[in-house]
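Worked Example 4.2. Consider the chain below.
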Amino acid sequence: MRFRFGLSFLLALFAINSFAAVPGVFYFKEAKGTELLAAKELQRYLYLRTGQLPSLVILADDEPLSPNSILVATQTDLEHSIIAKNIPNNILLADQDYSLTSLPLNRLLITGGSEIAALYGAYHFLQTTGIGFALHDDIIPDEKISRINLTGFNNTYKPAFALRGIQPFHDFPEGPDWWSEDDYKAIITQLPKLGMNFIGLHTYPEDGPKAEPTVWIGTKKMFSKNGTVKAAYPNLYFNTGDPDWGFAPEKTSAYSFGASMLFETDVFGAGYMKNISPWPHTKQENINNFNRVGLLLNHAFTLAQTLGVKTCIGTETPLIIPRQLKARLRNPGSDSVKEQLYEGIFSRIMATHPLDYYWFWTPEGWTWSGETAAQVNETEKDLAIAVKAAKKVNAPFTLATCGWVLGPNRDRTEFDNLLPKNMPFSAINRSVGYSTVDTAFKNISGRPKWEIAWLEDDGALSAPEFWAGRVLKDAADAYEYGCTGLMGIHWRTQNLAPAIMALAQAGWLANTYATVKTRDYPVANLYHDWAVTEFGEQAGPQAGIIFNSLDGTKDTAGSITKFPHSSNWLEGPGEVTPEKKPWNEVKKGYDFIADFEKLGLRITGAGNKERYQYWLNTFYYAREQGRIACLLGEIDTAVSRLKRTSSIKFQRNIVGHILGLRAQAANNWGKMVTYLLQKVNTTGELGTIANLEQHNLKQEKALTQYDKLLSSTLGKPVPPLNFSKTYTGYSRLVVTTKRTLLNKAEDLNLMIRVLSKDGVYSAIVYWKPLGEDQFKSKPVAHLQRGVYALNLPATAFNNNSFEYFVEVKLKTGTLRYPAGNADQTVVVW
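Applying the procedure from the previous section yields the following structure tokens:
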């Protein structure tokens, strides 16, 4: 027996030093839920990293862990194994804690205080191999590695905040208004990879400007036992056929510069809003909206529940009762009726979908114009009624507060003396994030407190924003003030990757941050790490320096951004704003682009190059927008001169000058949109197209607002701006939603968008079980324009994790998703 053990030991050492060795992934037979998912995710990502599929092995309690192996387990499961005796400095892990522990013979233990903590630990380890996680997608390095290092780990990780996550804000096409069920599921799946466990949604009421279907308002008699509503009122999420937030209705087929190719319907929105009739919609359409959103939340929040992600929705307070509902109620202003409505809201949620928290948002006006004593009293009465109603129906979720302020101006902590201590209090920072965390948080004790930092602001929503340093500063302050939750408010995803990385890190490390007096926390190291993951080792360090130089503000008041912003909130989000400074001065803010361009020669690998092109086009797009802002400023100045002069000759000279500026701005607009189309990669960026077309051009008439004045002065119509409908950029294959996790009965559904001057010859998906050799194939169905739909039924992969790629053949070449020779992989769980 001694000889046999010695031979095994020598063979194990040989295996450890073999360049072909990939660790085996082990789990206990008791593993379930996210503990089992963690093992499957380790197998999948190590396969992506090495090109070799690790074995997935059940480990018996009395069996030693093999050399060159990873064991993922909960602390409870591990305690029953003989391996537990060999763990140095074994400590008790709390529910969200996890540890990474190296053992001799190139072995690694990933131990969680719970199933979800084991999953956190697996994702943390995978990041040490060079893999990056973001909200919109995974970042897999192009270069394969031949060996996975399992040595040198001996750390325990504890979160700085009990809740960590996102607050995607409804109301614009750039945000969750256009998220499908697959979008919700894809993003919720990314949250544990980022160490996050919360998603919360705000609901605008009627006249806010229009009721949203996130939360239905009504009595218990107005819905069925399964939660489907029998009566509703006008409601919407943004779609291209309805006027909302300064957007004018427009058919997507009218979009310019080839943008129409990306949309399969003229009335576009989330699936349940496509081809809907004009506002206020039909009676049945309004009912359908609530029922379809309820079903979506059921599926999305059920997934969240299985991944340890807490969910939250709610309404504004005092409750705003929709007009059509009021007409059906007797004495709708009474406290008793309002209590019945809250009972109906809560009961319908209980019948429709899981939920962990229901929050009440104080009015937005409280942050901009303050509030009266009567308004505060009405809000406090409303909250008391809601608390009473929740108890009456035995609501299984916890009530909470939120808003643009923590509490009323007369005392930001006033609600603390009125509401039950189990209710969390939360707030977004004032001044769209330019203000710091409310110091009143530190004066509230004995209850959960959530800080919500701005990852971007809606004023600049059509431009890039870089706020990683501000997020870390808010996290440090929130931790100092005793907050137990850290979230980020946002609309878009991919272009916020650095800020999302900051939010993810701060959720676990804010307790280690030193206090700083500046508005932005230093983030040079963060940008270095992010850029190396994004672009590779050769160009990443220098790219990180460039991005770091663009983050945050450059004045002590924290209001002037380092990255030049050329859009703002006027009549709606992201409106390109006339700039009175000359372009020769403004363009200096974009000098960094020349340095970023030089890095292109150092970028290797298809994935790195694709991400580099995304950011390069982002910067080109922003520069063109800045140039247009200056031209609009010149036009405004010239129009002012035109209005002041009475000389017909001078008036016509000025008009000629304005028309020249207008034509130049239109030319730059075409360039700007083309750069945008060359980087569109998410539903949020599809929303940016809608913003430029329906808000900037059509509603606010950025380039044509003075046409009537100019025509009147000339005595004849000015030349129309006939924008081209043709795309002139390079060919692209766009998959806006990346699913990496499916349940065993779930189909894979993809929307594939082709942007090209060339005709499409074929579109085919190829798939196979993970790590096998033989692909199967299937044509992808063409919908309209450049949009294709893929449905791969669950029976096609037979409960097995799988890999796939999509190939689109054009007349002049081939497009592939994902880029290069890599395949997209999906775990079936």
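The CA atoms of residues 186 and 714 lie 55 Å apart. The first strand starts at residue 24 and ends at 28. Compare this with Example 4.1 before moving on.
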